[in-house]
Amino acid sequence: MIDARFPARAALLFFLLAPLMSHAAEELSPSDVLPADGYGEIAKSLTDVVERELRDKNLPAISLALVDGERVVWARGFGLENAEAKRPTDASTVYRVGSVSKLFADLAVMQLVERGELDLDTPVTDYLPEFQPKNPFGTPITLRQLMSHRSGLVRESPVGNYFDPDEPSLKATVESLNDTTLVYPPGTRTKYSNAGIAVVGYVLERKLKTPFAEIVRKSILTPLDMTNSDFEPTNVVSARLADAWMWTYDRRRFAAPEFVLGTAPAGNLYSSVLDLSKFAIAVFRQGEGTQGRILRPETLHQMLTLQSDDAGELRRYGLGFHLDQFDGRTIAGHGGAVYGFSTQWAILPKEKLGAIVACSLDGTNGVVKRIQDFALRLMLARREGGPLPEWEFTAPIPLELARSMDGTYRAGDKTLQLEEESGRVMLMQREYRRELRATKDGLVVDDAFGRGIAIARRSADELVVDGETYRRSVDEAPADVPPRWKGLIGEYGWEHNVLYIHEREGRLHALIEWFFDYPLTEIGENEFAFPEEYGLYHGEKLFFTRNDRGETTHVAAADVTFTRRETETKDGETFKIVPLKPIEELRRTALTAEPPAQAADLRPSELVELIDLEPGIRLDIRYATTNNFMGEVFYKQPRAFLQKPAADATVRVHRKLREHGVGLLVHDAYRPWFVTKMFYDATPDELKHFVANPAQGSRHNRGCAVDLTLFDLETGLPVPMVAGYDEFSTRSYPYYPGGTSRQRWYRKLLRQSMEAEGFTIYEFEWWHFDYGDWRLYPIGNRRFEEIDPE
Question: Distance between CA 231 and CA 216 in Å, rounded?
Fold first, then answer.
């Protein structure tokens, strides 16, 4: 297990090596499979697609394999398996394949069904008498229901769930389900459940008196010759395991945690696309592996048959396999998503064609599945003698168009929210936050999640989606949230997987598993419900527990307990650090040090005082007081200087903001270099991304950076933002998704107003803006009292 805290060095490493990751290796590895006869053009087309997707979406690594009948007809890797070692990805690179694992747990059950040792329709309690979740419906749960996701169980177990890094045993994980209540009557509704497949795996353990991983290794992996696969992180799989990366809506990337899931049968398989190809070939061979048979043909057929509910309605699951239609053909398979990895395994059983694709970036199943579907269509076109399909690429939206599209659009009671984020246009699409990009015909959602809806722009104020016209509505600050919600809003859970409770469009929302943003239904003061008809946790609830101050200490969301994270400062408080060295020692060192060498052809400094140009701008120069992150005075005078072009642009922003009833409140502008050095030398390594490195000098030192916020022109009070000034936490990121709609609206107003005048925002601080010409000015080290602006 690794420390899953966001490491600045890991993020820096990723971005430094990202250009290397975005290019496929020029030479194939011995593990790769050259295109078979007739597959050269398909391989070339897919190579072009994957390389472009790696670049456009900054994907670290992708491996893919194509199966035609009983052979792999092409397999290779793209990007880097190990970024630090610059080791290329290939077809034997190992990925955690997430829920593809479920197929192997279900296969192992069916082996015992064949032998008459298990029965699919016998109550599970016959095999696990201690398995007693609360069942108000009376109908017993069976293996068939568990394997087709119709048991009514919760999605996650209280112990050993997707969020739990403690690596409990399978026994402890299943036992914790006794503290849950069934969400639906067994057999009546499809509800995907990782907990359910954990129960399936535990039935195997108990029946065979053997650990689950060993059962699958001997009965499935060995007969299929899947030598680079296992349910445990053995030395073999760990040696080839790809670096895995997480990402978030606030634009962070960090190394994925590596802990083993308590629900291991549901999601803990390690495998390569070549190994997973052997599984596909065995299915095409009616259950015969290269080293032995795993199932009889009739048993495999049963697994590939849609299961019906108690009312006779067919669902999209067989026994383990997800079943659907693909261009008029039956497609069988499963997707997998686990920390830092996204995998798609799919076959066309009748046509005996298969495609397996895996990626080492979290939440990219949409992209992976689109590549997989494209591969299958290429293979079908080749077999049928038709022209090969083409991939439609997209491009970034031009900046001027992106800025003009920002706003809220309505069609009756439907709402479409578009937000321009430093040149990107983001769309809230039900529970997701998606990126719009340009095609030759218009705009389409295309991002790390995959392809989405298309949008046509009829006019500056009208958008058409699925034939329906949305018109721009008045852009105004949202109302504040009701007082009863304020103690609930915040972060909960673990650093590796934060649960955000926030407000959007007048409702509390739960942003869970980094990407899924669900509106909550308020049932009582401390009780809310996830959406009933869709989502990962449909039919489940959240229960908040509060302290005497009305703040929550934890929330039980879908039977998983998330403890409140004390990561933020309270309203009105200033974030503080403990300096690494005494302040006076830092000051003596900084005052005797020299700024870095500079070019000789820089512009002469033309610092001006902001309030001389615009007295309406207000000052709250924190470093002239002790009200700052170090609790010490650094400036003898509370003044704000900027280079003349930057100062003029700031004044224009202030005057423009009057129409919104707000003005600019400045916390800092020009900063002497020695103060930057003090900040850097005082700050712990894990927080240094919040302070500038004096070895390069900062934009503040050049008089081209300003820290500021908004104040209300009527009351004179600062406008509340999601995080306070100089708070060293992710809440300070410009695109942090938490807080309230009102806070985020004013944060966006500030950012877009500054960007419109030539400033860019610092990626870690919503209040910090750099002027475009900063490179042209020298690093300054004069104190305020030494400056005599013209």
Answer: 8
